[in-house]
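Hi W.,

Here's what went into the run:
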Amino acid sequence: MPWVKDFDVDLAVDKAMKVFWAKGYEATSISDLTDAMEIKKGSLYNAFGSKNALFNRVLLKYDRENRRAAIKQLEAMEDPLVAIRTLFDALIAESEADRERKGCLLVNTALDLPNHSEEVQALVTSALSEFEAFFVRLVERAQARKQVPADLDAREAAKSLLSQVVGLRVLARGVFDSESLRAIGNQALARITA
Amino acid sequence: MPWVKDFDVDLAVDKAMKVFWAKGYEATSISDLTDAMEIKKGSLYNAFGSKNALFNRVLLKYDRENRRAAIKQLEAMEDPLVAIRTLFDALIAESEADRERKGCLLVNTALDLPNHSEEVQALVTSALSEFEAFFVRLVERAQARKQVPADLDAREAAKSLLSQVVGLRVLARGVFDSESLRAIGNQALARITA
DNA sequence: GAATGTCTTGAACGGTCAGTCTAGACTTGC
DNA sequence: GCAAGTCTAGACTGACCGTTCAAGACATTC
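Here's what came out:
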């Protein structure tokens, strides 16, 4: 058997992620990608097939390493309200640290959903659905612990929380300062406890 | 004096708006624009100067005809809570009628803010700030009418409402169905009245 | 009806786009 | 050390990018 790849595929996907994340799918050219990934065009097409296929792979990795990882950690917390607070605080801290104002790759892609391939649409939709389901579980657990009024509709509240997270992610890309982002978190939490 | 323009500039801007709105700034080519506007490249550059300048003009028109117009109408309503309800209902109805799932041009641009020109950034930021100020006025009026608890922080609530509107606009582009969008509206209103 | 001056037209600009292909470099199995 | 077979390098494809420009069309003014 022959020669194996001499570049780290996973590392290359990671470098591609940063480009797509900051510039968006359309505005990212193959040259941008090969420059960042430090490979040549031939290698990119040999390894990934197409720009769209590479984006799919990037999105999958992003989802696994960010959304899934975060949910797993938050779900392990005992107090569901603390978990929600921690989530908002983490998003705000992330946006403060993000000099490029890249936002969230999933949300960025969600806004442009109709212009993406079906696979990408499916990936984003299911990722956000899982996020919503995660919120439902948290709210129901909080209700069981009597931290949240029993008459709150957990499913509606979960959709609202997802919407707040999405709104925060969008506004963090240049419209709101940190203080305003904190207001979103405060109000989101107040809504379900009051 | 010479010949005057023989195409309707305002109508052409309107046609350009639809293209930018559906496809996004980057994904829209000059050919896409000239096809839709039914003018030639030369005329486009003669009349507008550049793709970015045309986009600026489109955004300004969109803001005037949509955001400003809506705020003016809602602000004339006597009951501020009805105004908020009406706003959410209108957004949901608009998204249901929008087969192309174009969403909101201002929100679409806001998510991509760091990749736009300074003029565009300023335009979007001020438009959303005015939206926020509008929500502050509504909440304060509702408090004066004892429809909303006096201890609610009107400024925070306004930021939260803006975030909900933005979240709704994003999720309406393919992630949420109408019922889920209605949940966002319900919860947003419930938050400030409870 | 001729001069004026902005309009439209359409070709052309250099550059870049996503993607392909060939030639050669290289590791592996024998 | 040789054959097998996948990798990389980078030139190349034709199409399209945003933008410019020269030439001609035309309504207006005198």
